[in-house]
Every structure is written in C-alpha cells, then in structure tokens.
Amino acid sequence: MSEAKGMIIKMKGKKLFILILTIVMVISALLTGCGNTKTTSNNTSKNTSSNNTKEKKTFTLFYDTSTATPYDYTKTPVWKKLSDLTGVNLQVSYLVGTDETSKATLMISGGDLPDLIVASNNTFELFREANDLVPLDDLIDKYGTNIKRWYSQEDLNKMRDPKDGHIYYLTPARKTLYLYPYSGFYLPLEVLRDAGWPKKLTLDQYFNIIEDYVKKHPTYNGQPVIGFTALTDSWKIFTLTGVPSYLAGNANTGDVWVDENNKAHPFAISQWAHDYYKKLNEEWNKGILDKQMFTRNYDSYLSLIASGRVLGFYDQRWDIQNAINSLEQQKLYDRVPFALPVTFDGVTKEDYNSMNMTGNSAGIVITKSCKDPVAAFKFLDAMCSDEALKLENWGIEGKDYSVKDGKMYMTPEQLTQYKDSNYTKQEGIGQYWYFPHPNDGEKLADGNFVSPQDTPEYIASSYKPYEQEVLKAYNITNLSQMMAPPIETPYGFVYDISIPDSEQQIKIANQKASDLTRKYVAQMIPAKPDQFESIWKQYVSEMQKAKYDLEVPYIQQQIDWRIQHWGTK
C-alpha cells in the first residue's frame, strides 16, 4: 500500500475530500494515454499536504520471439517495486500457437501493434521494412543516461541499421559469465582422473587417452563402451563439420575462419578438414567410433551421453546440458564429461571459449503505435538504473539479500532461495534479460556487482563436489579456465551474418555444399582405410563444382562494413 493511500484511509470522516480526490484521479486517467497505453494513479505522495500524485504509464509489451517462455512477471513482488520505481505498469503477452514471422506479418497487416516488442532478428527486419519502428538515436542522446553508461559507443554502433544508420533496438546480447567452457572435446571425470589430469592435448593424444581407457575398461554397466561419437542430426552436424577450424586454433566463426588481418577463408575442403576426417576414419576402423553416429537423432545422442557409455565427443556446453543433468540425477558423477582444448600438433593457441562481447542481435523496440515514445524510452532507460538492476538481479533487500557495511551478500538461506528457480520465478528475480542491461561482471556505483552470479562467493558455491575435484586438480577457480579466455573481435561473431534472399545464387550454393558435406563425411569416415583418399578427392571436386565458397566475398564485405562502422569514428 502506498504512503498516500495509507494516509487517506486514516483520514476518517473526511469523505468529501476522498470523493473529490477520486473524481480528479478518474478524470486524469481518462485524459492521458500512450497508444495502447493507459494512465493510472498509484496514489504515491511524499507530501500529502500538497496532494502531489505520481502517475503511472501503462505500456503493452509483446515478446515476438520463440526463445521467451510465457510468464507474467508483472504479478511478482519484485516487479511491483520496479513498477513503483519506474512509474510504469506493463501488460505483457507472448508468442503462442504460431511462429515469429507469421505473428509479425499478422500484426503489421492489421496495423495493431503493441507499444513495445521484443523482436528476433527475423521479425525485426519485418517491422523495420514496414516502417513501424521508432528510431532511438535522439532518445538515447537526450534521455539515455543509464543506457549510455552501460552500452559503449561501439556497442551502440553495432545496432545501427545498415540502410539508414539509425538505431531501432537495444540488444540484450551482452558479455556473459562463463562457469564452464563454451565448447571443447569432452572426456568423463573418471577418464581425466585415470589419465592423470591432462591439459591441452593434440588430437592424437586425445584419442590415445580414449584408446587406452577402452582397452582397460571395455564395458560400462554391462554394455560396450563407445570411445567417440559425433552429433550429425540436422543442422547440429556443425559439431562434426565445424571442428577442423577449432583444431587449427580458430574461434567459432561459422563456415569460415578469419585470420589476424580480418580476412575470411573457407575451410570445408581444407587440409584441416582432410586431417580431421582422416583421423576419424582411422579411429572408426579401430572400433573406437560410434557405429550409429550417422543415424542417431539428437535425443538418441543425449541418451548415449546420459548412459555414461560414451567417452569422447566435441560439442558446446548448452547443447549437452540435459545429458549432464541426467547423469547428475543418476549420481553418475564419474561419467560427467568435461571439456578440454584439443588442437592439431604444432598449434599453439586455441579459442574454444570462442567470443564474449556485446552482439548485434535484435532486441526490444518501440513501435509507432506508441503515443508516448519518450516515456516508453525513459522506462527502458530506468530499467537499467542501479536501483532497478538491484531489484531485477538481487531481489528485495532483507528478504532476498542482505547488506553489511555497504556490501550486498546472501546468507546461506538466501543463496538457497536464489538457486531455486521456482522461488526466483515466483519472486520475480532474474526475469528481465530482454531489457537493456550491463555486461556480466559490471559493478554498480556503490561497488557491488550488478548480479550476484558475478560474485566470487556465488561462483565458488556453484560447483558441486565432483566439479570441485576437477577445480582442485587443475588449480583453477572457474571451470571456464580450462580454456583460453574468450576473445573479442571488431566484426562480431560472423556466424550471425545471414545471407539475404536477394543473394539467391549464394543461398543455392550453400545448400548444395551443405548437402555434399553431409553426404561425403558419412562416406569418408566409415570407409576402408585404402578408400579414404579417393572419396576425399571426389568430395573436393564436387564441392568446387558447387561453388562451395561463393559466400566468402559477401561475408568479407560484411566483415569490412562492420569494422568500418562499428568503431568510434
């Protein structure tokens, strides 16, 4: 209950005053609005003698992205405080029963847009082409106090539209905290322990460890141990076909690798690809590889890892998290896989932690249906103020966290609450990722971390006993330190450079190359040793005919454009 409302209730006998005040509020609510917005009184007043009231704006917000789970956080205790702080009520809705593009097309054709939209890259382009979005440049300059504090000029430049140079969205893609390596070649805890805690390995050393362990332990729970597998289902075949570049020390930049001079090169038929597939062919013929790796779907792949039978594979952590969860639930801790950096012999660097930087993925936009875009923008800026960030990430002081001598911390009980996803969802903590926010690891003006997950105490408490064994063995405090730190580039991620529909020849060539790669790796790897080279040569010839590298000049053009326009000049 607000202070003013409480005082009004106490003013018994002054019914006439209350009636007049109520009439004024109703009239005020009817006269104001923003597109689909309404104005309501929160009856907040620090000085009741002057009868000052703070009006709340109401904005509609639609999440037109399949990655957002429907959930009305506006009913939570944290949001109620955020609403009081920002002076805004939100009416949120989510994508349900259709796909992003269909919903966006329907909204555009109907002309009935919400005030704010969380857009994906695909839907942003649709709204932008329909001229339905408000440019944010002037708003950032005039009112973006907090946004300019957290988003550097380079960050803002990344969001500029290539066609007119305006900024239409504020990306949520920021630097993130890594508790685990982004990707790598995995081995179970028991295998690491048995091998004497190996660190950076060559490809040959990695497979030697697997071969030695399979010889000593050919079965697990009564079933044959599988030395190595690869995910080949649908687009996730990248966990097989992208590996040659990683083995050469490169970061994840999609179908190309980028050299130190920022020049893009294809690697699908490179010597790196030849050598990796050749090694897998050798291991296949030794009986080390999974004989079903070209027919397993994603669920079967995860089930294999969760069974504890498979030893090695390359993947990215997010892709196998469910299998790790299953192993933990079964208490098969010795079979939980850990990522290692593996390279070709002679390669001195590695980038398995890939890149960690502010991206240019689309985010929250203000539509031209909003009648008060200035107020809408001020709300977005207020959501990344220090006061709001504390609420969003830490919760409510005294309930969700404590403060001593100015330092924010969590008691053991509060930490347990924080790690309970049901509690944080009910409380409304950590539900605001799509709003503008700082990079992970940033600190507030008072010296506290923006997020409790960045504190050393939280990081130390995040690892289970079996993971702490690995930390101790490698003398590290964070499992992501198994790899080199993530890099930043002046051109972003590269894999997010999409080929537009106007470049049909490139799209056709890419599809042909993808089909050929899928076809020939499934022939090369299981082939007899004396057949490998002839199949490889046929693959190279077919890829060249298909113009597999037709996309490279276009990608280079986009890299050059980004370097030119994303800087501070």
TrEMBL record:
InterPro entries assigned: Bact_solute-bd_prot1, SBP
SUPFAM superfamilies hit by this protein: Periplasmic binding protein-like II (SSF53850)
Domain of life: Bacteria
Taxonomic placement: Bacteria, Bacillati, Bacillota, Clostridia, Thermoanaerobacterales
The name this protein goes by in its record: Aldouronate transport system substrate-binding protein
Provenance organism: Thermoanaerobacterium butyriciformans
